[in-house]
Design a protein that fits this description.
The complex is a heterodimer of chains A (about 350) and B (about 90).
Chain A (H helix, E strand, L loop, with lengths): L12 H7 L4 E8 L2 E7 L11 H7 L5 E5 L1 H9 L5 E7 L5 H9 L4 E5 L2 H12 L6 H17 L9 E5 L8 H7 L5 E5 L2 H10 L11 H8 L11 H18 L5 E5 L5 H10 L6 H11 L16 H7 L2 H10 L1 H11 L5
Parallel strand pairs in A: 4-6, 4-7, 5-6, 7-8
Antiparallel strand pairs in A: 1-2, 2-3
Helix pairs in contact in A: 3-6, 4-12, 5-6, 5-9, 8-10, 8-13, 8-14, 10-14, 10-15, 11-12
Chain B lengths: L5 E3 L3 E5 L5 E5 L5 E4 L1 H11 L4 H11 L4 H17 L3 E3 L1
Antiparallel strand pairs in B: 1-5, 2-3, 3-4
Helix pairs in contact in B: 1-2, 2-3
The chains are: A alpha/beta (about 350), B alpha+beta (about 90).
Chain lengths: ~350, ~90
């Protein structure tokens, strides 16, 4: 059984701050009816698995603690952290994990891929933080602090620090740009029909409205009561349309967009250049190697196989109509924008 | 009028947001307060141990405002902070 340090609710925050130095915020949870942060002493974990939660699962014997949200702000003040070198946004099932893996191929890099603490804090903007409100600023500060704390120099030297957000956090792109205006970002996307087919095959949590109806409704821009009549395919198509729209509206020299069909090992190097990184020869070789593998294989052995044609062939007329109705126009806007510049 | 020097209480955490304002969190009550740009400037002065006169000068070096107007605005904020037990007279 894990020991449970006295980092929970209470006034002895100086002790808690000291105890939790170099621990990482790993999740935003509800504890005893209140929003809270779950922390873990991850030691020198390198987060080489494709997703943050997979690394955390491998550390299940490590100590954990629960604190209130404001501990994020206190620890941010004393943290020695690397600042993010690049953000990865995406529409899901579109090569973003491959780009994250390319970042992991760099020597001395830290890649935080879809950390629940970040995406859950960002999701509070959907439900608890009206634009321009004090709550909005508070949650922006919590998010900034969580990013800072995940980037703590636990192993000493400075590292190149990248963050890949969950697809739904694309809808908070403007706020994230406001917090980190200088950090370069990339948005990856793909033909909506292919994404819908892929997501229907293995439905991700964000497409399950019953897990958090208020957030789900905000993702697709409808009232909670309207979710019941919406099929998973329609939910996905509407969400994709909104992801694409937000990305197209925010494109700038800082935010580059890339279609999955244009992702190659050469492009991965160019993407790193956008993050102000020039990979060395050995790193380029490592990137080339990961580009030949299935990005979500935790063992890193399964070969990548191109599946766009088979996904399009598997799409029903209903899926194609939904993609055309809810996502096609914004997708085409992104495709137009991609021809405006080369990374 | 308020005392010429006030200091933040130790359980109050201030976090700045890009110099455009910030949030004060009272760790005891878990209440939080938003400060605008001017309020943040004043709070940072309190953290440095500045007197009201020093803060008036600081505010006037940033904004085009008379000493009387700056002092009135600062004292109004200090009274509000004191009534919420976020600062104390030193």
């Amino acid at each position: 059984m894990n020991q449970f340090p006295s980092a929970s609710f209470g006034n002895n925050f100086s002790k808690s701050v000291e105890q939790l130095r170099f621990w990482l915020p790993i999740d935003a949870v509800i504890h005893e009816g209140r929003p809270a942060i779950k922390w873990m002493d991850v030691g020198d974990a390198e987060f080489k698995e494709p997703f943050f939660h997979e690394t955390i699962a491998s550390l299940e014997t490590q100590q954990t603690a629960i604190s209130e949200l404001d501990l994020l702000l206190q620890l941010e003040k004393v943290a020695d952290s690397d600042q993010p070198a690049g953000f990865i946004f995406h529409s899901s099932r579109c090569g973003s994990t491959l780009l994250a893996n390319a970042c992991k191929s760099l020597d001395n890099s830290l890649v935080i891929s879809e950390a629940p603490v970040l995406d859950k804090l960002a999701s509070r903007f959907f439900t608890d933080a009206e634009q321009g409100s004090a709550q909005e600023m508070l949650y922006m500060l919590f998010l900034r602090a969580a990013v800072t704390l995940l980037g703590q120099r636990r192993k000493g030297p400075e590292r190149r620090y990248f963050i890949k957000f969950a697809c739904t956090t694309t809808l908070q792109l403007q706020r994230i740009r406001k917090i980190w205006p200088q950090v370069p970002s990339i948005f990856l996307y793909r033909d909506p029909v292919e994404i819908i087919v892929s997501n229907l095959k293995a439905t991700p949590e964000w497409m399950q409205p019953e897990s958090n109806p208020a957030t789900a409704a905000a993702i697709v821009g409808v009232a909670v009561d309207d979710l019941g009549a919406m099929s998973p395919a329609e939910f996905c198509a509407r969400a994709l349309g909104r992801f694409f729209e937000v990305a197209a509206s925010n494109k700038s020299p800082q935010l580059r967009t890339i279609n999955y069909s244009a992702v190659t090992s050469e492009w991965l190097v160019e993407a790193l250049n956008h993050f102000a990184v020039t990979p060395k020869a050995g790193e380029v070789d490592a990137i080339d190697k990961v580009s030949r593998l299935y990005s979500k294989d935790i063992a890193g052995r399964q070969a990548f196989s191109e599946d766009s044609a088979s996904k399009r062939a598997a799409a029903s007329t209903y899926v194609i109509e939904l993609a055309d109705t809810w996502a096609r126009a914004a997708y085409e806007r992104l495709n137009t924008s991609i021809h405006e510049g080369k990374i | 009028m308020v005392a010429s020097r006030m200091v933040p209480l130790k359980d109050i955490v201030y976090t700045d947001f890009q110099g455009t304002g910030g949030i004060l969190v009272d760790l005891n009550t878990k209440q939080y307060y938003q400060l605008n740009e001017t309020g943040s400037l004043i709070w940072r002065g309190l953290e440095k141990g500045s007197s009201v006169d020093d803060i008036v000068s600081e505010v006037r070096s940033v904004y085009e405002v008379s000493a009387e107007q700056a002092q009135a605005s600062i004292e109004k904020l200090l009274n509000a902070l004191e009534s919420r037990k976020l600062v104390k007279r030193s």
